[in-house]
Predict the 3D structure of the following.
Amino acid sequence: MKTTKFLALGLAAAIATISSSAMADGGEDLFKKKCGSCHSVKAGEHKIGPSLAGVIGRAAGTAEGYGKYQAMKGASFSWDDAKMDAWITDQKAFLKDNEGVVGAQKTAMSAKIKKPEERAAIIEYLKASHD
Ligand code: HEC
């Protein structure tokens, strides 16, 4: 009886470990696939889009040295989980919903992530990959 309980606990812990590492990997892979052609998470490394190093918690439109902002030029809000979730769901809808705090109603970014669990994994990856 005792042994069974011990084994069950061990198994639960093993499963928890596997699923948490699977989630982190998922975020990195998703980022590479869905965002990586336009973004890097290295500070100062800009592509078509700005570097996303440390983006969660910082003011929108302020990646140093990036000169191609449209929507985020002069924006007056900071990125948090909710804003990021809405932005990567649908850029046009985000700009409309945030009129007044975004800089313009146009952007060259085009990336709609439909699945909530994929958005969550990407956001976790962005938080974990500060350098
Ligand atoms: C086709 C290229 C492209 C893809 C793909 C893309 N982005 Fe962007 N991204 C941009 C551009 C261009 C901007 C600048 C936005 C503006 O000001 O109009 C931007 C801006 C951003 C910003 C605002 C940064 C800041 O400094 O305020 C965030 C956050 C962001 N992207 C996250 C993502 C994430 C996460 C993904 C993947 C799900 C993604 N982007 C996919 C091109 C892209």
About this structure: The chain has four helices and no strands. Residues 34-35, 37-39, 48-50, 52, 55, 60-61, 63, 69-73, 79, 84, 87-88, 107-111, 113, 122 surround heme C (CB under 6 Å). Residues 91 and 109 are 7 Å apart (CA to CA). Helices lie at 2-34, 81-89, 91-97, 116-128.
